[in-house]
């Protein structure tokens, strides 16, 4: 890629009932990249339909979004997390319209966990391969039976749409986004900085 | 362990400049446990010196703490995250006093990343083995040269004090906390629920 980069904006969606690590994993990876390598010209922000009040996440964490749908900058990369809040969002016409309009202008539309429900509900996954939380494929296929369920992949890269498996899989997907948007070397650097050298004790 | 458990409270400290994944990793693991297995009688909350205003984390995320130091319930397990905010906290007498008083009554005092600076600064790590972010051992030993630096461990269990390595290592440590506080089976169950089966793409 060329040395002088245009600014690339990454918007991470927040909503009531969003699972905390679904968004906090990608937030850490991508905002660490943005701050550690300012020359890469990456901007990362959170965006909610309404950012005038705290968002209450799935496990009770209260967080303030940087922007509302209306005030947010153009989004080049959308990250849509999952969590129990996505159930209530399926069928929401306003949300469908927002997701479609972001996707039309974005370079990449991505989801973590049941965030895939929202991409599916907006019609973006029709006939395409995708993944979600291991326990939520029935729910995903109930929204759109034409989706090619990839049950054994950590994340599925289908060109302009990338879906990740459950909760912690968003960390792996976010590192892969750095590969897609920059290079393997940069992804490796950020991985080392956040010491993502997992050693699960069980 | 016996079937009827006393309530066990886990307090996760928040402060300006706390690194997001340092606390969000343990938050996800432990609050998932708390909600998924209510019969285990675990309470997880965030606590800041002052919870009347948003905490601004290291990468700019704004979050509201559940309790202040004064309003928080008794803390059985303290999780102290790291982040650039810890540098300014070294030498803070009020914080030292709070950490010592929590530690005296707690069952476990733990840290992630440069959260170890704060335990060291309160005198808790004197002559004891500990770890921190791979790039921050010099800083840790400058606070207390008697610490036995464990550079190659993901987390160090030294009885009533557990320290974890950098940022994402808090996830591994939090799963280990479930082992210590409950069982390997329970830790394995929560690991599967949050799909913590990492496949770093680089």
Describe this structure in words.
The structure is a homodimer of 202-residue chains. Chain A has one domain (8-192): 3-Layer(aba) Sandwich (Rossmann fold). In chain A, 36% of the residues lie in helices and 20% in strands. With 202 residues, chain A is α/β, with parallel strands linked by helices. In chain A, the strands form three sheets. A seven-stranded mixed sheet of chain A has the order 5-2-1-6-7-11-10, sandwiched between helices. In chain A, strands 3-4 form a two-stranded antiparallel ribbon. The first copy, chain A, is globular. In chain A, strand 10 and strand 11 (161-164) form a beta hairpin. The mean pLDDT of chain A is 97. In chain A, helix 1 (20-36) packs parallel to helix 6 (169-181), helix 1 (20-36) crosses helix 7 and helix 6 crosses helix 7. At the A-B interface, helix 1, strand 4, helix 6 and helix 7 of A face helix 1, strand 4, helix 6 and helix 7 of B. Strand 4 (62-64) of chain A pairs antiparallel with strand 4 (62-64) of chain B.
List the helices and strands and how they pair.
Two copies of one chain form a homodimer.
Chain A: E1 8-13, H1 20-36, E2 42-48, E3 55-56, E4 62-64, E5 67-68, E6 77-80, H2 85-89, H3 93-105, E7 108-112, H4 115-121, E8 129-130, H5 137-143, E9 148-149, E10 155-158, E11 161-164, H6 169-181, H7 184-193
Parallel strand pairs in A: 1-2, 1-6, 2-5, 6-7, 7-11, 8-9
Antiparallel strand pairs in A: 3-4, 10-11
Helix pairs in contact in A: 1-6, 1-7, 6-7
